[in-house]
Design a protein that fits this description.
Layout: E1 2-20, E2 23-37, E3 42-47, H1 55-71, H2 79-89, H3 91-97, H4 100-122, H5 126-130, E4 137-146, H6 150-158, E5 164-168, H7 173-186, E6 192-196, H8 203-212, E7 221-222, H9 231-238, E8 245-247, H10 254-263, E9 268-269, H11 278-291, E10 295-296, H12 304-317, E11 323-326, H13 331-334, E12 342-343, E13 346-348, E14 368-375
Parallel strand pairs: 4-5, 4-11, 5-6, 6-7, 7-8, 8-9, 9-10
Antiparallel strand pairs: 1-2, 1-14, 2-3, 4-13, 12-13
Keywords: Lyase
InterPro entries: DgoD-like, Enolase-like_C_sf, Enolase-like_N, Enolase_C-like, Mandelate_racemase_C, Mandelate_racemase_N_dom
Domain Mandelate racemase/muconate lactonizing enzyme C-terminal: 147-244
Length: 376
Amino acid sequence: MIEHIQIRVFRAPTPRPVATSFGIMRDRPAVFVRLTANDGAFGWGEVFANWPAAGAEHRANLLIQDIAPLVLGQPSDDPAGLWHRLTRQTHIRALQCGEWGPFAQVLAGLDTACHDLAARRAGLPLTQSLNPDAAKSVPVYASGIKITEAEVEVDKARTQGITAFKLKIGFDMETDLAALKTVKADLKDNERLFTDANQAWDAATARHFMEAAQDLGLGWLEEPIAADAPKTDWASLAVLKAPPLAGGENITGTDGFETAIANGHLSYIQPDVAKWGGVTGCFDAAQKITQAGRTYCPHFLGGGVGLLASAHLLAAAGGDGLLELDINANPLRDNLLPEGTLHRGTFHLPDAPGLGVETLPDSLSKFETLTLEAKA
């Protein structure tokens, strides 16, 4: 049974703010959760905490003060069963306060930790516990590249052997298009260019961009409009076919992903393991995405635990998806990855059991802002 929960919050300063069309991140947070069972087995998970600015500490307190009593004493050998049970048990609590996102994110981190624990106990890497025939490495693309800094950041990604780049747009239409044309003209034959508007536009503005970008050969346009925009708005963009549409980080629930697949508007579907579902929900969604002939590309912009979980999920799901790798400096991610993990544009999965994380390195202690615990 689960007898101990520890949650640790970190905030690392950024050399420069990370800008999106809807706001600016002025530091890099990470919320790591560790579950320990009565036999000593343990597992790590990560809870989404990028937004709002004070979200990391809130998620930690939500877990310990509200959700922990539902977790302690529960079996540690059935991650999916625990996640489904907690989803039911917290429904009214989330409804009462309107905080669907925070509850889902905490449950996602708990689920990943429980899967890590179970795989570690079995002596298997997480990906092998999900799919014995899974690949041991996955290709990556560089993300988090602000359009006005694209030339420099794309060159930096190239030095790591990366050949696919996602640029953040949605700031100024004409500036975005001009910069995209410049970057496109400098691409090598084997390189690909993606864009992410972070829900910046209405349907008419997004259509204008898509029509103006027809000749750029973009690999995808991610979240050009709000994730919850009417189905007719998404359909009006999908009919243009180029660039193909991507989204999924702001879709939640099994029904939500099934609807997205059925609607057919998204060519690339991007669940986030730290925002909803954990390994249980996201692996189920990933299988349905690939079976429907779409491409599963896990979204992730956080610390090292969540990135490793995303890599394991992508390898286990198969298909031709890419792993998102934020190009911006982040010690809460980089210091958790084993040496040699990223080589020539390929992310190599650790051979160690579970996710491959034993302990958090001491180098992170200077970034720690809060540690909370609960015991059975």
